[in-house]
């Protein structure tokens, strides 16, 4: 392309280059190549406009590091940024929720002498609202009001929601008052928006106070206001309060079908069908009820096997002359199927024709699913033919479901009638037509030769077979009956889903490998290697590797890397290094992943070999592989822990050539020093950094706070937090969590909870680390019930507990003599797909024996051995 451009001898000017870049938003890599190429063209020099356009292209591609590089190059090229450039920078940082960056850009914009315009203010305010920074959003909002910058309706809604979520009620009212002065929106609509923001934020008390305030001001409350409030109350499951709102409306003689619909749906969601029906009867006295409400009630009655009541509702809709839709008719047909009245079901289903409604593919799917439940094979075939006649798209999942159902009944041959000539009986109202060729082809694949693997349902069947018994002969017998045509890709998926049943998974691997017409490939072997290593079946792993070689499978760097990773993760780094040497001797070149996994293992606590890690890291750079951020963190962290600070510093100094910025590079070093308890070295580094100190301060102060608190220097930590807040940098989740951990350690539970509340108010969402610390803090203080409450809450609402959370909880409970409660967590871990460690079991078993519960200890030991047997050959 460059050659063609050079030969074309075009005359490049600012306008042409800007237009070319503007047309490259979908191809940012080409835009950058053209941008870099054209600046070498004779007589051309990039301008503010061309730089701005390239920055915009990079930002849209979310290449923020490139955005920074372009901005720096722009300054070096003496191209002044105009208001458009600054606004584009604000927009892209804002979209990425990089609030600190956005604030810095906004400040630099002012310092450069460019006054932010209305667009810049609006972008900045939107970013702060999206980032949950209500305190800063308020400052910007006041500034905008002072400068008479008008806000559009969308931004006003964002502000109201942001302030409501943060609990800043005063600011919600402030925005409302300003909207009344400066907006063309009517006053009731403004109150409606305020109420909606409170409801979205779940602030019911504030919502009710606003309603009372409006009543005192004699503001007329329309049905929309009440509907919003009822929605909010129902979303928080406050159905009693919502019903009180309904009573108020009844006194005012105001009927709103939407409110009844919301209330009825809420009762049904709570499975309180009787209450929903009572409200439904009441609603009918006031006016017409929508078809969707009838349908919702009808479906719930069918689920409770109250077919007669459900069908009476359908008849009532017909009598009232309501305009039924496809969903309502399908629901009624399903009711008749469940009642085993198949002819009546067909009559209702086919009544769609009379009403001019075309049944959808989804309607047919629901109908067929219900027919499968009552084992009505002929009717299923009839429905498939009906779909062919009507040329309704028949989804693959329908065929899979039908085939699976017929296979269990031993009636798969009945599909032939659909496949060949559609000779199964048709509904009377429908004539025959030539079956659709594509549908025939799609169906024919199920009738010829061995059955193909049918996705989720059959995958689930195989999983159940492999996990349902320890008797391999019994399992093999069931597998032989399946008559599936396996492929290596499907074998990989089956092995991947067998983390708790490694024994059966590997036996399955051998069994399927011996089947006629099947051969394992490198991917299936690699997965078998991986799961055998995960179960520490290293002998089996090596046997599989040698078998792979004997059968002539391609041995790729991935294969070697899997073995290196499996030995390395268990601390067997000597063997991992031996395999690395074997890999090189075999002529297979290590790739980036090989180096990364091996160096990571060598830097770990188990099997640490720092000198080897240094040698391999330098070798990795020599052969041309650039390290990623995670590897640098691990590597430099290890070097700092073992006092090899000069090697750590050399690593950091070399990162610039791999695209790491100076602040990022030094922040990695600073954090590593803090984690290694080398606070003085970290502070000395900060003093040396020079012009980048402020930016580095923002990157690293979370690590500094954590380190100060670990040393018990609370006052110094709080002083640093205040100092950073003055610079516009607010505490991060890392900082808040460190404070919570410190207060819990000092048994100051109230201060810890106050910090958690402050954190939430500022829109800083707690992580699983925060909640894990709180759980363990409660346990150490003897507040076991509160710890379980927190655990139950995160299980229900997130963030979900991970292996570390479970392990910490187990350890803490065992330490305070609650090992029986800790044993409950083993089942929870397995349910969540997390495999308990040997240490988890050891802590519980030791604890139970200490507490005089040997019988329960034996039960836990049996569970441990059961899991071990599933994961070992």
Overall description:
Belongs to the PPR family. P subfamily. It is a single chain. With 873 residues, this protein is mainly alpha-helical. Among the domains are: 369-448, no CATH class; 802-873, no CATH class. The chain has 50 helices and two strands. A two-stranded parallel ribbon has the order 1-2. Helix 12 runs antiparallel to helix 13 and helix 19 (307-320) runs antiparallel to helix 20 (326-338). The two termini are 58 Å apart.
The strand line-up of the biggest sheet is 1-2
Q: What level of helicity do the residues show?
A: over 70%
Radius of gyration: 34 Å
Low-pLDDT windows of residues: 419-455
End-to-end separation in angstroms reads 58 Å
Largest sheet: 2 strands, parallel
Number of helices: 50
Taking all residues together, what is the mean pLDDT? 81
> Would you report the number of β strands?
2
Instruction: Categorize the overall geometry.
Output: globular
Derived from helix and strand composition plus strand pairing, the structural class reads mainly alpha
Strand content: under 5%
Layout of helices and strands:
Layout: H1 2-8, H2 14-22, H3 28-38, H4 48-60, H5 64-76, H6 83-95, H7 99-111, H8 118-130, H9 134-146, H10 153-166, H11 169-182, H12 187-200, H13 204-216, H14 223-235, H15 239-251, H16 257-269, H17 273-286, H18 291-303, H19 307-320, H20 326-338, H21 342-354, H22 361-373, H23 377-390, H24 396-409, H25 415-420, H26 437-444, E1 451-452, H27 455-467, H28 472-482, E2 484-485, H29 488-496, H30 502-513, H31 522-534, H32 538-550, H33 557-569, H34 573-585, H35 592-603, H36 610-622, H37 629-641, H38 645-654, H39 662-675, H40 679-688, H41 693-710, H42 714-726, H43 733-745, H44 749-761, H45 768-780, H46 784-797, H47 803-815, H48 819-831, H49 838-850, H50 854-871
Parallel strand pairs: 1-2
Helix pairs in contact: 2-4, 3-4, 4-5, 4-6, 6-7, 6-8, 7-8, 8-9, 8-10, 10-11, 10-12, 11-12, 12-13, 12-14, 14-15, 14-16, 15-16, 16-17, 16-18, 18-19, 18-20, 19-20, 20-21, 20-22, 22-23, 22-24, 29-31, 31-32, 31-33, 33-34, 33-35, 34-35, 35-36, 35-37, 37-38, 37-39, 38-39, 39-40, 39-41, 40-41, ...
Protein name: Pentatricopeptide repeat-containing protein-mitochondrial domain-containing protein
Organism: Erythranthe guttata (Yellow monkey flower)
InterPro entries: PPR_rpt, TPR-like_helical_dom_sf, TPR_mt
């Amino acid at each position: 392309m460059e050659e063609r451009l050079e030969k074309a001898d075009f005359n490049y000017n600012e306008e042409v280059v800007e237009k070319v870049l503007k047309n490259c938003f979908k191809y940012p890599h080409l835009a950058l190549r053209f941008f870099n190429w054209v600046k070498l063209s004779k007589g051309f020099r990039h301008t503010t406009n061309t730089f701005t356009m390239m920055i915009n292209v990079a930002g849209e591609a979310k290449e923020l590091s490139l955005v920074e590089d372009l901005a720096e190059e722009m300054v070096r090229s003496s191209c002044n940024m105009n208001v458009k450039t600054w606004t584009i920078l604000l927009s892209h940082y804002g979209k990425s929720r990089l609030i600190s960056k956005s604030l810095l850009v906004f400040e630099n914009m002012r310092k450069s002498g460019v006054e932010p315009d209305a667009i810049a203010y609006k972008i900045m305010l939107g970013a702060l609202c999206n980032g949950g920074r209500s305190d800063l959003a308020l400052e910007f909002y006041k500034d905008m009001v002072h400068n008479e910058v008008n806000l559009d309706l969308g931004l006003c809604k964002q502000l109201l929601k942001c302030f409501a979520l943060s609990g800043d009620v005063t600011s919600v009212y402030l925005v409302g008052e300003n909207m009344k002065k400066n907006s063309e929106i009517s006053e009731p609509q403004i109150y409606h928006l305020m109420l909606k923001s409170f409801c979205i934020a779940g602030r019911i008390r504030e919502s009710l106070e606003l309603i009372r305030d409006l009543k005192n001001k004699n503001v007329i409350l329309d049905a929309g206001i009440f509907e919003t409030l009822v929605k909010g109350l129902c979303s928080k499951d406050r159905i009693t309060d919502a019903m009180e709102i309904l009573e108020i409306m009844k006194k005012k003689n105001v009927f709103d079908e939407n409110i009844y619909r919301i209330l009825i749906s809420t009762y049904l969601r709570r499975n309180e069908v009787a209450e929903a029906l009572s409200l439904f009867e009441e609603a009918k006295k006031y006016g017409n009820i929508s078809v969707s409400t009838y349908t919702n009630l009808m479906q719930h009655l069918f689920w409770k096997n109250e077919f007669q009541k459900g069908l009476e509702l359908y008849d009532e809709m017909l009598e009232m002359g309501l305009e039924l839709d496809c969903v309502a008719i399908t629901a009624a047909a399903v009711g008749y199927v469940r009642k085993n009245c198949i002819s009546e079901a067909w009559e209702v289903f086919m009544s769609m024709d009379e009403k001019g409604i075309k049944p959808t593919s989804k309607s047919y799917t629901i109908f067929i699913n219900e027919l499968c439940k009552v084992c009505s094979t002929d009717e299923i075939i009839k429905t498939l033919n009906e779909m062919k006649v009507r040329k309704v798209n028949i989804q693959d999942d329908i065929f899979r479901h039908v085939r699976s159902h017929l296979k269990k009944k031993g009636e798969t041959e009945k599909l032939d009638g659909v496949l060949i000539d559609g000779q199964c009986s048709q509904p009377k109202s429908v004539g025959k037509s030539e079956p659709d060729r594509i549908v025939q082809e799609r169906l024919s694949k199920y009738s010829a030769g061995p059955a193909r693997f049918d996705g989720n349902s059959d995958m689930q069947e195989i999983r159940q077979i492999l996990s349902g018994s320890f008797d391999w002969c019994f399992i093999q017998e069931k597998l032989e009956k399946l008559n599936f045509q396996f492929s290596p890709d499907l074998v990989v998926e089956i092995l991947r889903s067998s983390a708790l049943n490694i024994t059966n998974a590997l036996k399955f691997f051998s069994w399927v490998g011996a089947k006629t017409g099947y051969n394992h490939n490198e991917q299936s072997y690699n997965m078998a290697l991986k799961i055998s290593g995960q179960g520490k079946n290293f002998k089996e792993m090596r046997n599989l590797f040698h078998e792979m070689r004997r059968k002539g499978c391609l041995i790729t760097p991935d294969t070697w890397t899997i073995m290196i990773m499996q030995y390395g993760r268990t601390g067997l780094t000597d063997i991992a290094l031996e395999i690395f040497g074997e890999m090189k001797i075999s002529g297979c070149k290590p790739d980036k992943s090989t180096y990364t996994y091996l160096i990571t293992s060598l830097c770990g606590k188990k099997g640490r070999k720092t000198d080897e890690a240094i040698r391999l890291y330098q070798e990795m750079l020599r052969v041309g592989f650039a390290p990623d951020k995670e590897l640098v963190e691990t590597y430099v962290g290890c070097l700092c822990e073992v006092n090899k600070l000069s090697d750590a510093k050399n690593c950091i100094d070399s990162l610039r050539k791999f695209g790491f910025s100076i602040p990022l590079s030094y922040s990695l070093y600073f954090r590593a020093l803090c984690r290694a308890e080398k606070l003085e070295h970290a502070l000395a580094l900060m003093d040396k950094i020079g012009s980048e100190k402020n930016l580095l301060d923002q990157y690293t102060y979370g690590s500094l706070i954590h380190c100060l608190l670990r040393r018990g220097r609370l006052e110094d930590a709080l002083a640093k937090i205040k100092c950073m807040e003055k610079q516009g940098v607010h505490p991060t989740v890392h900082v808040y969590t460190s404070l919570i951990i410190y207060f819990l350690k000092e048994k100051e539970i109230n201060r810890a909870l106050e910090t958690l509340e402050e954190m939430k108010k500022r829109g800083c969402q707690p992580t699983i680390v925060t909640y894990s610390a709180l759980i363990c803090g409660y346990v150490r203080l003897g507040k076991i019930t509160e710890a379980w409450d927190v655990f139950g809450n995160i299980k229900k609402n997130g963030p979900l507990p991970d292996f570390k959370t479970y392990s910490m909880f187990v350890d803490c409970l065992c330490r305070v003599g609650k090992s029986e409660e800790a044993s409950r967590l083993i089942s929870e871990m397995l349910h969540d797909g997390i495999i308990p460690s040997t240490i988890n079991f050891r802590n519980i078993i030791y604890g139970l024996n200490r507490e005089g519960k040997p019988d329960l200890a034996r039960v836990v030991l049996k569970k441990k051995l059961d899991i071990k047997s599933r994961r070992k050959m």
